[in-house]
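Worked example 3 (structure in, sequence out).
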């Protein structure tokens, strides 16, 4: 899991750190869920949004977190996508 979440770095998803724990925990839960129940590529954006939209970010406007989670999933499509 740690190696997957390192992909957050290139997306500069971490800023002040206020929301980081919530996003990391929710991303982990999402990845674990997708490993058990993969989704279609067409449903990926909606799935990420549903998982992360409940968290507040004061700095980045959410886009970077979504991009980082998407990058983790796309890097291993055989594991997370159908």
């Amino acid at each position: 899991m740690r190696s997957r979440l390192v992909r957050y770095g290139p997306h500069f998803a971490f800023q002040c750190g206020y929301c980081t724990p919530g996003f990391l925990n929710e991303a982990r839960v999402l990845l674990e869920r997708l490993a058990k129940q993969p989704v279609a590529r067409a449903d990926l954006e909606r799935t990420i949004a549903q998982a992360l939209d409940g968290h507040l970010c004061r700095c980045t406007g959410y886009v970077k977190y979504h991009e980082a989670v998407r990058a983790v999933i796309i890097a291993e499509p055989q594991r997370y996508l159908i």
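Notes: The mean pLDDT is 83. The helical segments are 2-5, 20-36, 44-52, 63-75, 77-80.
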